[in-house]
């Protein structure tokens, strides 16, 4: 017994020494601009584009496919940076969406990569543009949606890419979405039902014809993908009659399922590789703990096998030439930053393009462990954890002594955590903490029963899942019970507020980024264009606050009304222009905590929306978070704030004293708001 105790103590000392000797990786390496990102192929394969900083702002660069070093910037955004872009079907334009200050009223901009000329082809104030359809068969035009007539509904326009002229194709009578064929005919409409399901209508005739009824239980796990080459059927992800969504082919005239192309008992079909010209499915992916690709033909199987051999991490095919002869593949390995590869699909040869963050290549990044944790009612919680350097001295996947731990909760809630490189996991592990992320019920990709088990369970069983994951980590010796913080963004921010109000003794502090505090005001302030989806999502998940019963359910699950239970310090970050979780959600709980004398630090960014797009703002907030966690509950290492606020728009409304060095940094700081 004594020998065992001495051995454990020795291992703990070795682990602590290893952690102390590990270099402190600068925050900017995790949260500054990547060196390059989002590689895409021109349709003919002659050019490669990617995002990279130009004067500190992310823009599109273009290079000959044979000479990446010859890349030049072709866009000139000077504010938030380009985030969503692609080549137009003819390969002569770059198309990207941009909003103002995070308001999500996206405009569509077209850039000529030769001249650099950029045109805003949807320059209408207060209107949100979306892409409805694009096709190699009609390379000179695309279909876009604009909610200019009715803020809640997107009418469909045909956009001439050369002239920018728009032609109204369909005035939307109430559809939540559309599907067009390769001739850019709008042939499918998706309409929400009052019960929270969706009906899929054929728009081929003079009057809409009901093709497919998606009951409420299938609404969040099913949907139409693309028409087949013949145009007489369309591909679907379909969970009707099964728990895990399958890839199916549905007759466009009758709505009958012609065949089930791919299915798995492990998880939903989560990704489909299709031929760019024929839309024929070539392979599909299923993701439970890790991504697993399965080819649907011999040629694709050999191509995927070659990628499996060449790459160490999970991967995704993110771009293909028009003839499918060349791919760009994104590799996601836990202990390396994201990497892009050029793959000659005919010769099955992968060539490295670039690392997104080469400063992290060779850095002491830590392994991520995938584990399935049982919830108290038997559901399986696919989860991931990362340990600080040196904590696992014997290599068994568990630390020698329990660690200060951050429970980092994903947003959505209809999203999921996955295996791979995770900036927060690696950053926090480097500071000396274990990090745990759990896919609570409501997370996607794990079957419709898992999603539907979340309805009515905000602050209920969804939160129980997080507590069960924490208890598992304590039982396994991973987490130190009195040093566990909770944090996250969006729903993760809400989960943080629930954690410190509904279970106030379980967490030592919390970090809430754009999280709702009052579910009534959350739903009532949603943008108009969310209304076609509300019955299937938030009304079904929480309750409809326009009804007495729904309003009461929302109030009961709102942290704002339990603020007097808070026992621990809280850090809140908010974008002033957030259209999803408006600034009132943070202001309400900050005001309530301040009135009661409870410890809260409030960081507001006037030029941000739902999260922090500008790297200056990310670095400022995460500088606050790092010092906050070290000072208030976890006690790990932290990089001083230093000049982390430089160039940001940060204003600290209250609680600066809770972050070491913040008051001094603010004394010599002038916010810079991007326009």
UniProtKB/TrEMBL annotation:
<keyword id="KW-0031">Aminopeptidase</keyword>
<dbReference type="InterPro" id="IPR029058">
    <property type="entry name" value="AB_hydrolase_fold"/>
</dbReference>
<keyword id="KW-0645">Protease</keyword>
<dbReference type="InterPro" id="IPR001375">
    <property type="entry name" value="Peptidase_S9_cat"/>
</dbReference>
<protein>
    <submittedName>
        <fullName>Dipeptidyl aminopeptidase/acylaminoacyl peptidase</fullName>
    </submittedName>
</protein>
<feature type="signal peptide">
    <location>
        <begin position="1"/>
        <end position="20"/>
    </location>
</feature>
<dbReference type="Pfam" id="PF00326">
    <property type="entry name" value="Peptidase_S9"/>
</dbReference>
<feature type="domain" description="Peptidase S9 prolyl oligopeptidase catalytic">
    <location>
        <begin position="422"/>
        <end position="632"/>
    </location>
</feature>
<keyword id="KW-0732">Signal</keyword>
<dbReference type="GO" id="GO:0006508">
    <property type="term" value="P:proteolysis"/>
</dbReference>
<dbReference type="GO" id="GO:0004177">
    <property type="term" value="F:aminopeptidase activity"/>
</dbReference>
<keyword id="KW-0378">Hydrolase</keyword>
<dbReference type="InterPro" id="IPR011042">
    <property type="entry name" value="6-blade_b-propeller_TolB-like"/>
</dbReference>
<dbReference type="GO" id="GO:0004252">
    <property type="term" value="F:serine-type endopeptidase activity"/>
</dbReference>
């Amino acid at each position: 017994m004594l020998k065992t105790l001495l051995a454990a103590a020795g291992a703990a000392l070795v682990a602590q020494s290893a952690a102390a000797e590990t270099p402190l990786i600068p925050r900017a390496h995790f949260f500054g601009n990547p060196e390059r990102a989002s590689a895409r192929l021109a349709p003919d394969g002659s050019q490669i584009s990617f995002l990279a900083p130009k004067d500190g702002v992310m823009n599109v660069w273009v290079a000959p496919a044979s000479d990446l070093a010859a890349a030049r910037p072709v866009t000139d955004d000077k504010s938030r940076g380009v985030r969503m872009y692609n080549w137009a079907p003819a390969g002569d334009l770059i198309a990207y969406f941009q909003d103002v200050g995070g308001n999500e009223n996206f405009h569509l901009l077209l850039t000529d990569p030769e001249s650099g000329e950029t045109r805003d082809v949807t320059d209408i104030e207060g209107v949100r543009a979306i892409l409805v359809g694009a096709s190699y068969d009609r390379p000179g035009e695309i279909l876009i949606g604009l909610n200019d007539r009715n803020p809640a509904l997107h009418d469909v326009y045909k956009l001439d890419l050369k002239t920018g002229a728009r032609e109204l194709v369909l005035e939307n009578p109430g559809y939540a979405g559309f599907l067009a064929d390769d001739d850019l005919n709008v042939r499918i409409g998706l309409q929400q039902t009052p019960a929270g399901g969706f009906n899929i209508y054929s728009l081929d005739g003079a009057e809409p014809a009901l093709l497919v009824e998606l009951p409420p239980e299938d609404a969040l796990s099913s949907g139409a993908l693309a028409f087949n080459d013949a145009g007489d059927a369309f591909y679907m992800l379909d969970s009707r009659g099964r728990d895990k969504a399958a890839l199916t082919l549905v007759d466009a005239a009758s709505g009958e399922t012609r065949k089930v192309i791919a299915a798995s008992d492990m998880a939903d079909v989560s990704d489909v590789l299709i031929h760019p010209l024929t839309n024929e499915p070539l392979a599909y992916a299923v993701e439970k703990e890790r991504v697993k690709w399965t080819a649907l033909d011999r040629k694709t199987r050999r191509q995927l096998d070659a990628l499996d051999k060449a790459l160490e991490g999970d991967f995704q095919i993110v771009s293909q030439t028009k003839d499918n002869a060349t791919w760009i593949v994104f590799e996601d390995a836990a202990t390396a930053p994201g990497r892009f590869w050029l793959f000659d699909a005919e010769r099955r040869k992968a060539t490295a393009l670039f690392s997104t963050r080469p400063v992290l290549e060779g850095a002491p990044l830590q392994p991520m462990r995938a584990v399935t944790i049982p919830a108290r009612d038997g559901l399986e919680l696919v989860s991931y954890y990362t340990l600080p350097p040196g904590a696992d001295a014997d290599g068994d996947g568990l630390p020698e002594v329990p660690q200060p731990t951050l429970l980092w909760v994903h947003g959505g809630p209809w999203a999921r955590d996955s295996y791979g490189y995770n900036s927060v996991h690696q950053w926090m592990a480097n500071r000396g903490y274990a990090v745990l992320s759990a896919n609570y019920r409501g997370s996607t990709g794990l079957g419709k029963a898992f999603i539907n088990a979340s309805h009515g369970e905000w602050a209920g069983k969804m939160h129980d899942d997080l507590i069960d994951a924490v208890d598992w980590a304590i039982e396994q010796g991973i987490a130190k019970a009195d040093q566990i913080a909770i944090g996250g963004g969006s729903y993760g921010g809400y989960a943080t507020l629930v954690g410190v109000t509904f279970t106030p003794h379980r967490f030592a502090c919390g970090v809430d980024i754009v999280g709702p505090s009052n579910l009534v005001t959350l739903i009532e302030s949603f943008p108009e264009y969310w209304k076609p989806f509300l019955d299937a999502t938030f009304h079904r998940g929480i309750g409809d606050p326009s009804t007495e019963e729904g309003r009461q359910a929302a109030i009961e699950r709102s942290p704002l009304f339990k603020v007097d239970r808070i026992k621990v310090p809280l850090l809140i970050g908010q974008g002033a222009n957030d259209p999803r979780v408006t600034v009132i959600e943070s202001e309400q709980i900050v005001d309530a905590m301040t009135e009661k004398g409870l410890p809260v630090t409030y960081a507001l960014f006037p030029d941000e929306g739902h999260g922090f797009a500008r790297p200056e703002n990310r670095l400022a907030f995460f500088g606050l978070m790092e010092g906050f966690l070290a000072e208030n509950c976890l006690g790990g290492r932290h990089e001083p704030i230093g000049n982390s606020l430089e160039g940001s728009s940060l204003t600290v409304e209250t609680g600066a004293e809770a972050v070491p060095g913040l008051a001094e940094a603010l004394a010599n700081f002038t916010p810079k708001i991007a326009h």
